[in-house]
Amino acid sequence: MVLDACGLLETRLSDAGFERVAGVDEVGRGALAGPLVAAAVILPPGAELDGLRDSKMCTRRQRERLAKRIHEVALAVSVVRIQHDRIDRRGLQKCNLDALRRALRGLELAPDYVLVDAFRLKRMRVPSLGVKKADAVSRSVAAASIIAKVHRDAAMRRYHRKFPEYGFSHNVGYGTSEHWAALKQYGPCKIHRRSFFGVLGFPDQGPVSGPGMARGRASTRTWMKSWTWTRR
Question: What's the CATH class of domain 8-158?
Fold first, then answer.
């Protein structure tokens, strides 16, 4: 049974006098292609959002319905996109934290407390808390997860029109067997993250063939040390 986000953290923060609680989350961290997207959301106390939960626990139709409702009721919403080439230049973790911070700075209404899914953001101007699986106990983080996911999936469907051979319309850039097979056959396209292990080929199998193959494998060996298969 999948439960809605309970809003426990917002309730406790409200009792402590915090009125504008922002939730922030990112999507696309583990994808082989496409942008990393972060969203920040401030919900009004008592906002009615039936079915609000972690974006991974919702169908596409549910997410799109929720995203529309979130935009209608939220006090503030902000979305930030970090492109693939910037991730290659700066590294995933730096880009991840930068995206979360930029999403918070983009809110039209300044929060007085910030909730982050999993990550701790240092040197914030307001109090903040990083909570593992925050989208289960924070409605604002769950809302941010939905907004980011809907935004990124729509972008990947647009990319599918330009690069249909990779199946971006349904794998949205993640490493499915179909996506790996396409990489082996065609090589990486313009939006692939070439610093990610395997995108330019595996060290024990040689590089992938096809157009777009342009770099050595030093960066992929570096990435191999920190590779995760999380689908967000």
Answer: alpha beta
